Amino acid sequence: MQNLIEGISSLYRQWNGTDAKTIDVLPQSGSERRYFRLHGNVDSVIGAYGANIKENESFIYFSQKFYKKQLAVPEIFAISGDRAFYLQEDFGTVSLLNRLEEGGFTEEVYALFKKSMEELAMLQVKGDEGLDYNRCLTNKEFGKQAILADLLYFKYYFLDALRKPYDKQKLIDDFEALSNYLTHTEYKYFMFRDFQSRNILVKKNRDTNSYVLTVHFIDYQGGMKGAPQYDVASILWQARANLPDEWKYNLLEDYIDAFENILGHSIDRKIFQSQYNGYVLIRLLQVLGAYGFRGLFERKAQFLTSIPLALRNLKDFFANQSIGISVPQFRKVLDLCVSDEIIQHFTPTQATEQTPLVIKINSFSYRNHIPADDSGNGGGFVFDCRGILNPGRIDSMKTQTGRDKEVKDFLEQQTQMPDFLNSIFDIVDITTEEYIRRDFESLIISFGCTGGQHRSVYAADALARHLKNKFKVKIELKHIDQELKNWVNTPSP
Fold first, then answer.
1. What is the DSSP code (8-state) at residue 60?
2. pLDDT for the residue 407
3. Rounded Cα–Cα distance for residues 185 and 193 (Å)
4. How far, in Å, CA of 346 to CA of 348, rounded?
5. Burial of 468 (0-12, 13-18, 19+ CB in 10 A)
6. At CA 486, angle to CA 485 and CA 490, rounded to 5?
7. Using CA atoms, how far apart are residues 160 and 309, in angstroms rounded to an integer?
8. How far apart are the first and last CA of the chain?
9. Which one of 204, 211, 248, 449 is most buried, counting C-beta atoms within 10 A?
């Protein structure tokens, strides 16, 4: 990580003529790319590092072409000689998804979604003009092979993981028929490929501290030529956003209005929507495949919790929409996936107001003692964090705790703490679900490290957050050694 910070700092110095005042390491998302926020005297910029040079070059190329056309993308300020680092415009920290979760389904949030649809249509049509699709990261066009790849992604990483019988050859035949149908679309322009509310940023007016009606796009490096309906389907049917049906309908109409306005002529809306429904299905299945890969195979808990949302999204789609083509085996498979049995399988048992269970989570120091279970039942879990690299051995973090940003970044990015915690989540989840179901009253879980300051504090906080989000269970969190010291930490002599 230090090498990356030095690399992005050097590029900033070359561009700005001075060193950045501070550098924030931004949380890593689903990709291997790393992002930094570099602060100057007045403004900040985003620094990016990617080991995949072709991916960097695709993003830079698209950004430079689109920015010249005044489309809703960041300006690229500087690029390192090896193309591994670059600096881009900083649009802030608030995504459209953040605004939705914060504000709910309000007129203000709807206006931001509508603006996003209008800017998307502009990006697709105007961005397509003169674009060299040979600069794409993967395929130049989202054609039959790309559609089949998304369908097979769903098959291998989600459907097959269910271990339910189905006619594999008939399913492949239906995949072939559907991909042929969707390939023959009338309109093909620039396809964002991952157009979702997380990749749309909104900004505040500095003077009024209120959000302005502008949106900005990021993470379109996987873009290619393709059907515009795919991007519309991606955002309107995003599982995490869970937009109401009325919003989905109205925003689709808003998009088509904007699309027609940019084209300068009307389109056959019936055909456009029929093909749109097909791409909704493709997108929903691609997302399920991604959740299956990240959750069922890589065992990342946050993706497992998203599977029930995605399945309900798929079920809702089939209850109200038609894709315009008969694919009987495919439909049987999808009916299986959205059955009550499968949805229930992935839906954790959640606590209610009447659930008696209270989970006590502690951090402690092995220099003292393992916390006792005062419920009278004995038992519980004790996890030893001392196998994880200790940030307390680094001078800058000696007086910090597992709640400080530098410590959290270190544990998340430079240690095996994420894998350690994912394994613990798997174990504790089983017990938690059973305890809720059987009306148990108490469970104690403790994390120990050398001083009860860094690793154990971080792990206890992470588990408390995970259990509360997943099971809605009551949590009593106690950091024993830190609370005894009133969270005042002095370096060892």
1. H
2. 93
3. 16
4. 6
5. middle
6. 55
7. 19
8. 28
9. 449
Model pLDDT, residue 324: 79
One-letter identity of residue 229: Q
Residue 324 and residue 274 in contact, taking contact as beta carbons nearer than 8 Å? yes
- 471, 387 contact by CB (below 8 A): no
Nearest to 215, CA basis, from 94, 327, 344, 72 = 72
Rounded Cα gap, residues 310 and 332, in angstroms: 18
The full set of domains in the chain, from first to last, is: 2-89 (3.30.200.20), 96-346 (3.90.1200.10), 358-484 (no CATH)
DSSP summary character for residue 296: I
Structure tokens at 110: 């709807």
At 213 the pLDDT is: 82
* Per-residue model confidence (pLDDT) at position 190: 97
Query: Which residue, 477, 483, 408, is CA-closest to 447?
Result: 477
> Nearest CA to 445 among 327, 359, 358, 351?
359
pLDDT at residue 209 in the model: 62
Q: Low-confidence residues of the chain, pLDDT below 70? A: 28-31, 205-211, 491-493
Say how far residue 434 (Cα) sits from the centre of its chain. Answer: 29
Please state the pTM of the whole predicted model: 0.74
Are residues 473 and 359 in contact, defined by beta-carbon separation less than 8 angstroms? yes
Residue 243 Rama label (left phi>0; alpha psi -120 to 50; beta): beta
Distance, CA of 82 to CA of 326 (rounded, Å):
50
| Total residue count of the chain as it appears in this document | 493
C-beta separation of 63 from 56 below 8 A: no
91: Cα within 13 Å, side-chain hemisphere: 22
Cα 363 from Cα 447, distance rounded (Å): 5
Close Cβ partners of 153 (under 8 Å, ≥ 6 residues apart): 285, 286, 289, 290, 293
DSSP state of 211: B
